[in-house]
Amino acid sequence: MIPNSVLGLFPQNAQNALLALPGANSAEEIRIRAGRPIEVCFGNSPVALDLIAGQEMVLAVVSNAAKKSLYAHEEQLKNGFLTIEGGHRVGFCGRVHRSGESISLIDNFSSANIRIAREIKGSASQVLPYVREGARVLSALIVSAPGVGKTTVLRDLARVISDAGMKVGIIDERCEIACCVDGTPTLDVGKRSDVLDNCPKAAGVMLLARSMSPQVIITDEIGGQLDYEALLSAAACGISVLASAHASSISELLSKAYLKPIIDSRLFDRYIFIKRTASGIGPSEAYNAEMERI
C-alpha cells in the first residue's frame, strides 16, 4: 500500500485513484505535472491515472509536504525537495528566483515528484563480501546507472557495519540515506551510526572526522574537487569511505573527468558495479584499486 504520509499529500479524489491502482504497493514514484495525468512509476514502467492534475494540486502537494508552511521551509525549498515522514522525498519544479548565481526561492510550482522510500534490509548482503576484509571495512565506490539501488545498498551497509560494532558517520547531503525528518533518521541505519542531514559532503567529512571519530564514513554520489579532497583527508586519517557514483560500465566510469583524481589516488580499494535482478540487488562486476577485475 502507498504510505499514508504520501497519500495525505493529495486531495481525496487523487487518493482514491491511487488506492484503486493495481499493484500500487510497489510504486516507486508518483509524478504530478500541471495539465497532465498523474503518473505512477514502477521502475521504468510508468502508468498514467485517469486524473488530470491542475496547478492547484501541485501547490497542495508541496504545501502539505511543508506542513502548510512554505515560509518556514524556505531554506529546504531552495534545494528543490522536502523530506516527509517515512523518509519519502518530494521534489518539485517551478519558477526559480535567483540572487546572483544562487537560488533564493522556488514558487509557482508546476510539477512534483514523490519518491517513495523503501527500506530493503539485506540488500547489501551480496555486496558485503567485497567490502569486508576480515575485521576491516575497505573503502569502496558503489557504481550503477540511476535507479538501480545504490542508496539502498549504502543504507544497508551502514546498518550492517554499524550493528556489527563499528562507528559509522553518514553525510546525507540529499536526505536519502537515513531519510531524516527534523534531523532524526526515519530508516534503520544501525545502532552506532551518526547522521549529518542535509549537509554538504566536504564540510560534513571534516566535521565528522573532528568530532565523532568515525571508523567508516558513508555518503552518496560524490562530486567534484572539494568532495575528493575531503574524502582523501578522511582516508589519510584511517577512515574507510563508502560512496556511490553514476556509471553504467567501467568505460563510462573511467571517462568521467571529475573521478579521474579519485581513481588515480587509489582512494577506493574496490569499485563495485551493481545490478537489480528478480532476486534483489547484487554485484555485476568488481575492480580493485588498480582497476583490475576481481
Uncertain runs: none
Q: Spatial order of the strands in the main sheet?
A: 13-10-14-15-9-16-17
Q: What is the radius of gyration computed over CA atoms, rounded to a whole number of angstroms?
A: 20 Å
| Relative strand content | 25-35%
- SSE string, helices as H and strands as E: HHEEEHHEEEHEEEHEEEEHEHEHHEE
Protein described:
The structure is a single chain. With 294 residues, this protein is an alpha/beta fold. The protein has 10 helices and 17 strands. The strands form 4 sheets. It has a 7-stranded mixed β-sheet with strand order 13-10-14-15-9-16-17, sandwiched between helices. It is globular and about 55 Å long.
